[in-house]
Structure prediction request, 233 residues.
Amino acid sequence: MSVRFEPPQASKTLAVMQKATNSNNMKIIGVLVSLILTQTCLAQFKLTKLDKDSIPKSIQYKGNIVEAIRWTDNTGDNIVILTATDKTQSKNAPDDSYSDGALYAYHYLVSGDSTKQTWKVYDYVKECPVDMFLYFLDKTFAVTDLNKDGKAEVWIMYKVSCQGDVSPIPMKIIMYQDNKKFAVRGTTKVKVSATDYMGGEYSFDEAFKNAPAEFRQYAEKLWKEHKVETWKQ
Prediction:
């Protein structure tokens, strides 16, 4: 019978390597589980993308379509439309360097040939003489069923500001479930030196504070993914 002898230092090194490998494996598994759960939440309703030709003629909206989808849940046949207006010259401003802009989100319930608007989000910048930051954030619009009650949660996230400096930009998450509004408000996180940052804080409104934990967890994840300022306009 042969006996393998490992020097104490080598044995210790192997143990450390094994521990690191196990730790990395657990992190990978955690990421995969998170992705699977996220995809499950996002895929519980069959979503149909719409364009201006497939939106019912009875639905009125302002601006250019950014997103438009349709789905069915326990509340009925739903349509949500996100739009943004072009920047326009402000009326009654001191000169033609001032501009206005607006964002809209509309929710409609469809019943046969009739449609009924149940909620609307409207935010804007007016008489802005410097940089306008007013847009929906890419890949943040979502329809989920996090609490599995068969009623969709509709998520939108956007920035809204008029500023000529590099300070943090106001940012919002608005979520609706049925006709109830939930909001997160705060600012982006801006790098001000090699090691220092400013901003990035946020707060839940009362509706979110009293909501199921899954709602706040999803909102926190969304904020964390998008809080660092990119200076896109």
Summary: Confidence is low (pLDDT under 50) at residues 1-8, 29-43. Residues 44-226 form one domain. The CA atoms of residues 157 and 173 lie 4 Å apart. Residues 8-42 form the longest helix (35 residues).
